[in-house]
Each structure stands twice: as C-alpha cells, then as structure tokens.
C-alpha cells in the first residue's frame, strides 16, 4: 500500500503507462513469434495513444473543481507502479501474466481516481481511461489462456 496525494498519483499514472509501453517494446525485441510481435506493436501504439489521451485530459481537468480540497490529501492506495522486471529470459506466458497484472494496476488507478473525482466530467475521463485499459487487459488475458492450453 502506498501513501500519496492525488497530484502524485496523477503523475505516477502517466509515468506508469510509459513504463508499460517500454516493457512491451523490450519483450517485442526478445520474441521470435512474428504474430505476437505484431500484437505488441499494436499494443505499444495504443498505449502511446492512451498516454497522449491521458495527458491531454489531465491538462483539461480543473484539479480544484474535479478533486476539491482533497487534491493534496494523502491517501492509502493499493496500486501505483511496481518495479518492472527485465524481459531477458522471460517466457511468453510469464510476460502475459505480468502484462495482465500491469493492466490491472492501470485499471485500479483510473478507478480510484474516478472515485475521488467530484465532477461528472472527471469521473467520465477516468472511466474512459479505465475502459481502454480493461480492453488491453482482456486482449492479454485471451492470449494467456490460449498459451496455457498448449
């Protein structure tokens, strides 16, 4: 559990999406599976678009009205980022398990921020961000289930 302010969590969440993209890119370079490399390229592109969308919407938020006086309050948050392992020697199944977990962290972060938002527009922004990360997680879950069958 981490203690942080909303402002700190907002910064951390953007940094986290960048770290996730780097993790995907590193594994893409390690794998010989051409179709999986294509999937990872798509996911990296989508994470890049997600990061841009996230940053753009954060600039549009009025932190004082969206989060009120709680903007600098310290919260206990079960999430945030974790250290990202090296992809060297990582199996495809292990990569997928980690990717699913990382997407879960992103979802939890967006859901937490949405729950703290005082405005409908703020709640909507974080719901859209969470929904996008949920789609990514489901893609990785589907691939994980297939890999575990074989």
DSSP summary: helix tally: 5
How much of the residues is beta strand, in percent?
A: 5-15%
The stretches of 5 or more residues where confidence is low (pLDDT under 50) are none
Q: What's the gyration radius in Å? A: 16 Å
Helicity range: over 70%
How many DSSP-defined strands? 2
The general outline is: elongated
What does the main sheet amount to?
2 strands, antiparallel
The oligomerization state is single chain
Q: Mean pLDDT score, rounded?
A: 89
Q: Which strands sit side by side, in order, in the main sheet?
A: 1-2
Structural class: mainly alpha
Tell me briefly what this model is:
By secondary structure, the chain is mostly helical. Helices cover 75% and strands 5% of the residues.
Describe the protein:
- The mean pLDDT is 89.
- It is built from 5 helices and 2 strands, in the order βαααβαα.
- It has a two-stranded antiparallel ribbon with strand order 1-2.
- The chain has helices at 6-30, 34-60, 63-67, 92-116, 120-149; strands spanning 2-5, 74-77.
- 23% of the residues are buried.
- The protein is mainly alpha-helical and 150 residues long.
- The radius of gyration is 16 Å and the shape is elongated.
- The N and C termini lie far apart (36 Å).
